[in-house]
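To whoever is on call:

I kicked off a structure prediction for a single chain this morning and the downstream step that reads the tokens threw a length-mismatch warning. I double-checked the sequence; it's 447 residues and nothing unusual in it as far as I can see. Pasting both halves so you can look.
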Amino acid sequence: MEGLIMTAQLLLGLSILVVLHELGHFLPAKWFKTKVDKFYLFFDFLFPFPDIAKFSIFKIKKGDTEYGIGWFPLGGYVKIDGMIDENMDKDFLSRPPQPWEFRSKPAWQRLIIMIGGVTVNLILGVLIFIGIMYYYGEKYIPAKEVKYGIIAGEIASEIGLKTGDKILKINGAYYEKFSDILSPDILLGSNSSYTIQRQDSIFDLPIPANFIDKLSSKKIQMSFVEPIFPFLVGNVMPGSGAAKAGLKVKDKIVQIDESAINYFHELQAVLKLKQDKNVKIKVLRGGRLMTLTAKVSPEGKLGFQAQSLLRDSTLKYSLGESVVRGTVQAFSVVVVQARAFKKMFSGEMDVTKSLSGPIGIAQQFGSVWDWYRFWSLTGLLSMVLAFMNLLPIPALDGGHVMFLLFEMVTGRKPSDKFLEITQRVGMLLLLSLMAFAIFNDIWKLFF
């Protein structure tokens, strides 16, 4: 079921992005009276091999255009007559250019058609982030609320953090939100550091240059750091050890067997040592101390959600403020992506740990349907898709734009043969990248 929910969210997110991206090409093509043969969500062939497994799940023809849903769910396309694209259809090269063909249109019209997809993705990403800011606001744990310190995960321990440490500053400056400890300035910056309070001492802890690689590693299962927090019993799972023992919402667990419990991580540590055993639980309920007996699961859990007693905050924004903050947040994705690419090409970032394919993206959506996370990831992917498509690589929109700008500046149009060859080279690059990403996903999943 969890896999189905992940897959469903991925397919819905991709469907929204692909349809609107291709609509960005389709509408200006129609506006300039260019014939569009096909408009497809997903591919009706084994991409990038246009002659293999050609069939669609659904199709209907209206006017000159066939609209359909392909069987291969990794993208989509519009087939514009007189243009060499992922279909690699070059039959039109044997006939004289026709007025309705893409190749017959002025360069400026072809440029608008080609940048339409990226433009729509940028607009969509900005609108999603604006909507998130306006509808949900910005929920966060204030840094000052993390007064009990942090739980250091495996990566945090490797760089010198310890459970109980308090992170006072980031790069020498005080910060407002606990989530800022993993801001792009830390992940992608140089000479980054935390100011740490450990008991009575305060010192600066430098962040290693390969910090982001460690965070990206799928072998690391524990989070980087989490706040230490006191807690109450939240939702109790039916049939669990907690339910059978009689634990109720709002109970405060103060002791497990002989171990005193003040914070949730202490409970987790004790239960891990009591796997598949019965334990005595002392709880405060309505001011009364009670003792319950519960069976710990083989995974070391009682079966309830912890309700943190740290107070989070939510910043609510007006529509005008949401427009500004949403736009800034959307384009910050592009900036971070560009900085990440720079680090990958310079060798500062390990590509195998940073690149994700469809499996990795599906995992980001999670196994529970959460609309906030869904729209956040869809907005992020929309901005990333716009950035990636603008790269000057043949077969991507950016490659077509590069050749069109060359034509507009020099007045010389690249030959159809040259465009055909570059398209094949670009398709080979994309195929190699896609195969690498999928293999990398599988490797990180099992190793």
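Update from on-call: the warning came from a stale cache, not from the record. Cleared it. Sanity check on the structure: The first strand starts at residue 36 and ends at 43.
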